[in-house]
Specification:
- Keywords: ATP-binding, Cytoplasm, DNA damage, DNA recombination, DNA repair, DNA-binding, Helicase, Hydrolase, Nucleotide-binding.
- InterPro entries: DNA_helicase_Holl-junc_RuvA_I (IPR013849), Hlx-hairpin-Hlx_DNA-bd_motif (IPR003583), NA-bd_OB-fold (IPR012340), RuvA (IPR000085), RuvA_2-like (IPR010994), RuvA_C (IPR011114), RuvA_C_sf (IPR036267).
- The structure is a single chain.
- By secondary structure, the protein is of the alpha+beta class.
- It contains 9 helices and 5 strands.
- The chain has a 5-stranded mixed β-barrel with strand order 1-2-3-5-4.
- β4 and β5 form a beta hairpin.
- α3 crosses α8 and α7 packs across α8.
- The chain is globular, with a radius of gyration of 19 Å.
Length: 219
């Protein structure tokens, strides 16, 4: 299983990128959103990957975070959602948007993705709603940026800088943990956090927890 790719971008296609890893080129299929965020040809890039293996097909899919990779894996398990549909959903909403839409039961947001009809969107929400708290609690976990050593002809590769420190847990993950410790069920905590994020996407952890608690308070 290929779980991560780090190398030099050779070119970007409409739905994929070719990454050279020390002389071996890997075709990695990505969402529109991921492709747009990748650097230009000739620069270093890294992606979490998921390998689709079929009798007559091997396809590698790339994601900027483990959360997005996990949503892709879960979306692919829903009847009627293949790789193309999964990437369309992730490309339209992003990993955070998928988390919020599913936690809130907002199938209309899922339906906004190209090629996704109302029945499929409802199936996605209904089948994955219980998975939302676990995925949301994963935090951002972005792939570490590659250093110059992944590019064979990069000058001074041996003196490359060390990889960046692991990112701190996201406010969303910390808020979910706090609400869970207070005795709230994972599904209701995820819904409250998702609603709070919709109202204040840039809220810090403490603000997010207070907002979620207000939403969970008895009416």
């Amino acid at each position: 299983m290929i779980g991560r790719i780090a190398g030099r971008i050779e070119y970007k296609g409409d739905d994929h990128v070719l990454i050279d890893v020390r002389g071996v080129g890997y075709v990695v299929y990505c969402s529109d959103r991921t492709l747009a965020a990748l650097p230009r040809a000739g620069e270093a890039a890294a992606l979490w990957t998921d390998l689709l293996v079929r009798e007559d097909l091997l396809q590698l899919f790339g994601f900027p975070t483990l959360v997005e990779k996990e949503w892709h894996r879960l979306l692919m398990g829903v009847q009627g959602v293949g790789a193309k549909a999964s990437l369309a959903i992730l490309g339209t909403l992003g990993a955070d948007g998928v988390s919020r839409a599913i936690a809130l039961g907002d199938w209309n947001a899922v339906k906004a993705a190209k090629g996704i009809g109302p029945k499929t969107a409802q199936r996605v929400v209904n089948e994955l709603r219980d998975k939302a708290p676990t995925v949301m609690a994963m935090g951002e976990q972005a792939v570490s940026a590659p250093d110059a050593s992944v590019i064979d002809d990069a000058p001074g590769a041996a003196a490359s800088t060390p990889p960046p420190a692991r990112p701190a847990p996201s406010g969303r993950a910390e808020a979910l943990s706090a609400l869970s410790n207070l005795g709230y069920a994972p599904s209701e905590a995820a819904r409250a956090v998702a609603e709070a994020l919709d109202e204040a996407p840039d809220a810090d952890t403490a603000t997010l927890i207070r907002a979620a608690l207000r939403l969970l308070a008895p009416k």
